[in-house]
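quick one before i forget lol
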Amino acid sequence: MKFNGKSIKYGDNVDTDVIIPARYLNTIDKKELASHCMEDIDKEFQNKVSVGDIMVAGYNFGCGSSREHAPIALKESGISLVIARSFARIFYRNSINIGLAIVECSEAVDGIENGDIVEADLDNGVIYNKTTGQSFQTQPFPEFIQKIIVNGGLVPSIQNGEIK
């Protein structure tokens, strides 16, 4: 699994209420959720995010409620990968379940600035900052998680009781 995009960076404790404010949870329309993604922390997010971009964040990304709306809004907005120092446990699992790639790598968070061009090869556990030339090692995704993400999430991945 390879990712390539511009980085959009945030700090610590970005909670699910900031990723997608609760006032928009009266819809399940993914495009509608994406249109409000990050608006309470970054009014310009919608103008600067492009398909394939990579979000970089500090500790405890996705803390707060356990709603799946947050990773859905990120993925639908165009974010292909989130790199953080750490993730809230439920957010981590929800992200995998809906097919949003996420990885913990403190060194990458330290070495990537907002707007840097980042390439990630999660088959081999390498994150490369193309802007600075730095590379960072992380744990590769296990094959079964790779399959879930490649297939767009857990539910679309299951056919006849097996992960395809």
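fyi The radius of gyration is 15 Å.
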